[in-house]
Structure to design on (227 residues):
């Protein structure tokens, strides 16, 4: 079965600064990888996904992520954050096995300083 | 239409009540999911329906009873809940149950008194 780790519970960055949120996964084959964002009291919105192909994935709201097989990582980046990016970010991993479920990391809370 | 719609948005119920949460999608997705999310935690999978059949039950207590009347609708029937069942209940759908991305609704905030 697969697993996913988000090492940072909280991250604080200044508005306009760059951002990187870390995600590490464990799975024997190439997984499906996702980043979701959740604002307080809201559902989860898909930012981007990786299934195969180009390892640098572009998403919505100016986010991108890079799949690095050698490091089992799928880190999320944004060159310049906006105050509206303050939210909870979840990395998730899925597989091609029908009975496997998508596993979510514990999440990283992003705080933005004005 | 790329939305998953959940009703009600908020629900308060006593421990002896019977209520239902509803979820609807019109994206042609054939897999639908119920998740439970406590504050500051990731979503926890409860049930998965694939082609209207229950595919995964994550050992959820019987006071939660899912139902999938058709490919667009998913219900969660609630009976004799406990205060610790208070949480945000999220519905999601995906094209198929094969690791594809999940599309989430806004959730139903449940409070059990």
């Amino acid at each position: 079965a697969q697993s996913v780790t988000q090492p940072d519970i909280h991250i604080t960055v200044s508005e306009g600064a760059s951002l990187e949120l870390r995600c590490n996964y464990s799975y024997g084959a190439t997984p499906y990888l996702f980043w979701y964002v959740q604002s307080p009291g809201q559902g989860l919105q898909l930012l981007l996904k990786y299934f195969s192909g180009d390892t640098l994935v572009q998403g919505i709201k100016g986010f991108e992520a890079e799949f690095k097989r050698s490091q089992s990582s799928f880190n999320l980046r944004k060159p310049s954050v906006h105050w509206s990016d303050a939210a909870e970010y979840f990395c998730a991993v899925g597989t091609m096995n029908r009975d496997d479920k998508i596993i979510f990391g514990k999440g990283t809370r992003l705080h933005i300083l004005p | 239409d790329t939305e998953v719609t959940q009703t009600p948005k908020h629900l308060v119920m006593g421990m002896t009540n019977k209520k239902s949460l509803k979820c609807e999608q019109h994206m042609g997705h054939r897999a639908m999911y119920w998740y439970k999310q406590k504050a500051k935690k990731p979503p926890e999978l409860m049930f998965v329906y694939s082609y209207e059949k229950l595919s995964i039950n994550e050992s959820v207590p019987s006071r939660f009873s899912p139902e999938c009347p058709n490919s667009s609708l998913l219900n969660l029937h609630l009976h004799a809940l406990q205060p610790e069942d208070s949480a945000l209940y999220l519905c999601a759908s995906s094209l198929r149950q094969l690791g594809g991305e999940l599309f989430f609704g806004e959730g139903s905030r449940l409070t059990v008194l």
User: Anything to note?
Assistant: Chain B touches chain A at residues 4, 6, 40-43, 45, 48, 55-56, 88, 90, 92, 97-107, 109 (CB under 8 Å).
